[in-house]
Amino acid sequence: MKIIFFGTPEIAVKTLQVLNMMPDIEIAAVITQPDKETGRKKIKTPPPIKSAAKRMELKVLQPENKEELLELLEDFSPPDFFVVFAYGMILPKKVLRIPKHGAINIHTSLLPKYRGASPIQSALLNDDKETGISVIKMDEEMDHGDIYLLRRAKIEKFDTYESLSKKLAEMSAITTPPVLHDIQSEVLTPIKQDHSKADYCKKIEKKDGEIDFKKTAKEIQNMLRAYTPWPGIFTNVNGKKIEITELAIDENESLKSGEFKIEKDSLKIGTSKGILIPQKIKPEGKHEMEVKAFLNGYSHLFKKTLKTQA
Fold first, then answer.
1. Is 224 found in the same domain as 141?
2. What whole-number distance in Å separates Cα of residue 41 and Cα of residue 48?
3. Is residue 250 located within the same domain as residue 110?
4. pTM of the predicted model as reported, rounded to 2 decimal places
5. Confidence band for 305, pLDDT divided at 50, 70 and 90
6. Are residues 109 and 87 part of one domain?
7. Which is nearest to 85 in space by CA: 154, 182, 19?
8. What confidence tens digit (pLDDT) does each residue in 186-244 have?
9. CA distance 71 to 62
10. Is residue 221 within 8 Å of residue 246, measured between CB atoms?
11. Contacts of 273 (CB under 8 A, 6+ apart)
C-alpha cells in the first residue's frame, strides 16, 4: 500500500511513526506546513512532523499554497491513500481525486461534534466526559466527509489539552493502519454525517486565555485545562500580566467577581459562582512559582484591588 501523509503538529507524529513501521505500507512523501518563525528572536522552526519525517529519512514537501501543492503531487504516481492528520489546509477537489481510495482524515472529535480547528480544547472547555477520533473520507468541506470509524475516549477529571492530545495520538496510531487495510479491502463502508447536528469550533488565539471573572470558577478551571500549555490563562493586575498555571476551586465560597483576597499564604479570587485558589503563578517575565513565593514578592500589585484578611 502506497500513501502520502499530510500533517503538521506533534499530535500527528505517532501515527506517522507507526505507519512507517508497517512492512506492507510505503510512505511516498510527507507533506507539511512551511517552517515558521517562533519566539522573540523569530527563529525559523520546522513543524514537528517535518523533524520526525527527517529522522525516518522520509521525503518531506512543504508547499506554500494549494497551487504549489497540486504541482508537487504531479511528480508522484497516484497513491492508494492520502492520510491527513491536522495538516492545516483544506484540500481542494483536484487534490482529493488523486489517490485511488481517496483521502482519509483523522479528526480528534466525535463528528459531527466539533468540526474545526480546536476540537480537543472545545471538549475540555465544555467539560465533556468523552471525546475520541473520527476517521472520515475527505471532501472539500471542513470535517464534512462520510465517517468510516469512530473511536471513543474517556476524558479524565484532570486531563488537559496536553494529556488528552497524547491519549488521542496513541489512539490514532493504533487505529489508522487497520482502517486503511479495511477500506482498501472494502470491509468498511463510510456512513454520512448528520449535518444538522454539526457543531463548529474556532482557532484558538492568545487573547482567548484572558480570564473573564464573570464566568464561574468551574468554567475558568476548564479554560486552564483546555489552554495548557498554550495560551495559558492570565489576567492583569494593575498593569502587570499574571498567568495562573495551577489552581483549585471552591464552588461553595463566594467573593465578588474579580475580587482578590489574601488569607495567610493563599490567594483567593472571586467569580460569578465559586472562587479560584491559585496554586502556582507565573508573573510576566518571570518563572513559574508557588503562590506563597508570589505573594511574598508581588503583593504590592494588589494595593487597589486587594481585600486582606489577617
1. no
2. 19
3. no
4. 0.94
5. low
6. yes
7. 19
8. 999 999 999 999 999 999 999 999 999 999 999 999 999 999 999 999 999 888 899 99
9. 12
10. no
11. 216, 217, 218, 251, 254
